[in-house]
Design a protein that fits this description.
alpha+beta; 4 strands; globular
């Protein structure tokens, strides 16, 4: 059984579901919305879409309908370099990115199920335990190498959630005013925690340099980032056929 955990607002989830429907393959997968936290927590979902085979993680964002169709056919999936595949998955999970940024290290997010999804195990033939150990051994270096990309990924997520929080009404000028290091830091701490789980032992020693870098990027790019997010969300929520489909699905 192939299950896809998704959120209706996620652009990748939207593209996967629409692609599977166009291919006549939607009935071959089980779709579960992560609107209820119980579904995501029970399945240990790090990012959506989250694809499992009989409960074992086999793919996560970034993915595509073509990749899911290949999984349905049981084809081998090649992800290339394991470290790059894992770090790309981190970038596409705002939760993982925020945790890594607060800790200044990717080690806290080297979860074997997350690694399995990032490396497309078992269809890629990757040895998950070996890959996880290798990533942990280089986790600090990987964080430094990918730090700027993590900042930029979080900047986009910050803008998306500012768009949601304003009901889509925020302006570029309003976004520029909102993007202070303190506001960004408050948002990152909230994004990186489930209650207080996943926070550093002393949360009051934040990575202020990173918060400033994200805030500065948002201020410089406010108009373009907001346009990108608005177009993404309007495309999803103006698709009546898609909305009718996903609103009928369970939040297990």
């Amino acid at each position: 059984m192939i299950t896809i955990y998704f959120h209706p607002s996620c652009a990748t989830s939207y593209e996967v579901i629409r692609g599977l429907k166009a291919a006549g393959a939607l009935e071959k997968v089980r779709l579960v919305r992560t609107v209820s936290p119980s579904a995501a927590l029970a399945a240990r979902v790090w990012s959506v879409p989250w694809v499992t085979i009989d409960g074992a993680p086999v793919a996560t964002d970034p993915t595509s309908a073509d990749e899911v169709l290949a999984i349905l056919r049981g084809e081998r999936v090649d992800v290339g370099d394991a470290e790059e595949a894992f770090m790309t998955a981190v970038l596409h999970s705002s939760f993982a990115s925020a945790v890594a940024l607060l800790h200044g290290d990717v080690k806290p997010v080297v979860d074997e199920e997350f690694v399995s999804a990032a490396l497309r195990a078992p269809l890629s033939g990757a040895d998950v335990k070996k890959a996880a150990e290798a990533i942990r051994s280089k986790s600090s270096r990987l964080f430094e190498e990918w730090r700027d990309k993590i900042r930029r990924a979080l900047a986009v997520s910050f803008v998306r959630e500012a768009y949601w929080a304003s009901g889509g009404a925020i302006t570029p000028e309003g976004l520029e005013g909102l993007a202070s290091p303190l506001s960004v830091g408050l948002w990152v701490i909230g994004k990186a925690s489930i209650g207080r789980s996943a926070l550093p032992a002393v949360p009051s020693r934040p990575p202020t340099e990173d918060f400033e870098a994200i805030a500065s990027f948002v201020r410089r790019s406010a108009r373009g980032l907001l346009l990108k997010v608005a177009e993404e969300q309007r495309a999803i929520y103006s698709d009546a056929e898609y909305l009718k489909l996903v609103e009928s699905l369970p939040d297990l």
